[in-house]
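Example record used in the benchmark description.
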Amino acid sequence: MNKVKRFLKEEASGWKVFDVAWLLIATAVILGLSIYWKDNMVSLTAALTGVWCVIFTGKGKRSSFIFGVFNSVLYAIVAIGAKYYGEVMLNLLYYLPMNFVGFIVWKKHMNSESGEVVKERLSAKKSILVYALTAAGIFIYGLILKRLNGTMPYIDSMSTVISVVAQILSIKRLMEQWVLWIVVDVVTVIMWAVNFSKGGENIATLAMWSVYLINAIIMFVRWYKEAKKNEV
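Model output (structure tokens):
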């Protein structure tokens, strides 16, 4: 019981006015659009848990991984309905177990004063190496998908490979994750916008990814500053 109280206290500490306002605005946008377009409860809940997950990740709070567990399962259900099977596999086979890993790993690197995870960044050389290996992975996996007659193989490869690398960087508490998340979010916003324009009803999912994109830009700036401070 003491551990639970300590965890909740840690999660509630360090929130600034901007953080709370951003959380409330993002939640209100998802709810408002979902109610207006009469979205279903699964899509709405997936969107809300997803938005809370990325915002809490940006704050460096471990509860982000708890929201991530629910989001992985619910988003996979939504993706099945839209026939985005790559998204289904990515969430159930990768994101879902990695959320448990992240929750455990971050526990060892929490700042007791701020209640947030300690943020770090790679050296310039290591950053370039990570991005180069990611690009190579996209090309190789794209070739494989092309051989399998996949639809838009390189776009599909880009979304999958970058997501895998970004999640690893997130668990390792590295600022560079946000650069990759921005790319993933742009690609996925376009994907769900196309789905919605063709008659899809998952407006909450499109809104979720749009919030992801805005959040990734905000958190890139924040993590860059905090990681730089931690080097001193």
